[in-house]
Design brief:
alpha/beta; TIM Barrel; eight-stranded parallel beta sheet; binds fe (iii) ion
Length: 424
């Protein structure tokens, strides 16, 4: 008999994501490894049974103090992985919405006092306690949307001490009960005002001072660069990312979001882990990513919040053979806290099928964060990160816009929403 301390029964459809290469491309992206009429057994935070209800009845015994959950015919998915967020910041920028509706561009909004530098001001001014409370609340709501693993980028301080403070905070918040956090250093998010006339001096500061400290103290797993005209050029981006590689960090690029400027090509040349956004990437750029095995991280809610932007190129990436992953891009520019909602944008906006979108937000997003050996699928011996939806099939999750998981578990412990015990 298999002993379990948590048993989930009466699962209508269990999406295991267990079979296939990692990351997935092409037809394999649509295979969710479904088990119907399924059950799960968990012991000490790890899956010890994944299979049919009948098999569970024969082989799994629940410990005396164990818990039994009736999924009531619902759907169970692996915990979603948010491969791209800017969740650590203070303040908000709803004042930009009328400008966006007027048709103001990202650059125009920045000229009017909005944009990244506005959030840099509010973040620098916030006390560490204020920043911690704002970010902790946001991460809890992101977990409630189904993300049990979340990448969090720095990038709203743009100076040495401030960027280190953000990454230290991410480390501290990652020790709480809640989603697993993967930190990324994005000091190269924008040129800080005092370096406006000498941007290479800021690149010097990143390469010579901040990156070595980030690597030495293991404050980040990845280094990312906002590679776009007016932000960081191809040459500056390459210099920063080569320094990161030499220090043992993984690399990511905000690539070709507004114009095709060579960011995806640079990701391919450097063998970056991912190239993110890609709204303006051309078909040749996508083929270069596919050849180099770079994961394309799409943020399909972001063009929706930009108003008037072209949509994320989901079908184009699949056709080109690029492994697609998904992220929320949660930031003051695109305040999207729910990965369940991102699945809807991936289908209705980026034209992935529901199954492709779920693979992109689980196994492939885990691969984009170098944690595919641990999260993103439901399999024996893996951490028991899973979601229970009161919906009859995985397809219904993106189909019903705004749907959210009824229960969220990380390592076999219910993390969200808070248990609503009746008063008795
Ligand atoms: Fe971003």
């Amino acid at each position: 008999m298999i002993r379990a301390d948590l048993l989930v029964t009466n699962i209508g459809e269990l999406a295991t994501l267990e079979r296939g290469p990692i990351p997935r491309t092409g037809a394999a992206l649509g295979n969710l490894g479904i088990v119907r009429d399924a059950a799960l057994g968990v012991r000490d935070g790890t899956f010890v049974y994944v299979g049919s209800s009948r098999g569970a009845a024969r082989t799994v015994r629940l410990a005396r103090q164990g818990r039994r959950i009736d999924a009531r015919g619902g759907t169970v998915l692996p915990g979603l992985v948010d491969a791209h967020s800017h969740a650590v910041f203070a303040g908000e920028r709803s004042f930009e919405l009328p400008w966006k509706v007027e048709g103001a561009s990202y650059a125009e909004i920045a000229r009017r006092g909005g944009g990244i530098l506005s959030t840099v001001r509010t973040t620098r001014e916030a006390s560490t306690a204020e920043l911690r409370d704002a970010t902790a609340g946001r991460l809890d709501r992101m977990a409630a949307g189904g993300a049990t693993t979340i990448e969090v980028k720095s990038g709203y301080a743009l100076n040495h001490a401030g960027e280190i403070r953000l990454l230290e905070l991410v480390r501290r918040l990652g020790r709480r009960r809640g989603a697993h956090l993967v930190p990324t250093y994005l000091g190269a998010h924008a040129i800080p005002p005092i370096f406006r006339r000498r941007p290479n001096a800021y690149v010097d500061e990143i390469v010579r001072r901040t990156l070595p400290e980030v690597a030495r103290r293991r404050l980040a797993r990845f280094c990312d660069v906002f590679c776009e005209p007016g932000y960081f050029s191809i040459q500056q981006s390459e210099r920063i990312l080569r320094a990161a590689i030499a220090l043992g960090l993984g690399t990511k690029i905000h690539a070709d979001e507004f114009v095709a400027s060579g960011g995806a090509r640079l990701a391919a040349r450097l063998g970056a882990r991912s190239a993110d956004h890609l709204l303006a990437a051309r078909s040749g750029d996508l083929r270069a990513l596919a050849r180099a095995g770079v994961i394309g991280v799409l943020l399909p809610a972001t063009p929706f919040t930009t108003i008037g932007s072209r949509p994320s190129p989901g079908r184009e990436l699949v056709r080109a053979g690029v492994p697609v992953a998904l992220g929320s891009d949660c930031s003051p520019n695109s305040w999207v806290e729910s990965m369940s909602l991102v699945l809807s944008h991936a289908v209705y906006g980026a034209h992935l099928t529901p199954a492709e979108a779920i693979s992109a937000a689980t196994v492939n997003a885990a691969a984009a964060l170098d944690v595919a050996g641990r999260v993103g699928m439901i399999a024996l011996g893996r951490p028991a990160d899973f979601l229970v939806y009161d919906l009859g099939s995985p397809e219904e999750i993106p189909y019903r816009i705004g749907s959210a998981p009824a229960q969220i578990y990380r390592q076999g412990i219910r993390i969200s929403p808070p248990r609503m015990d009746p008063y008795i």
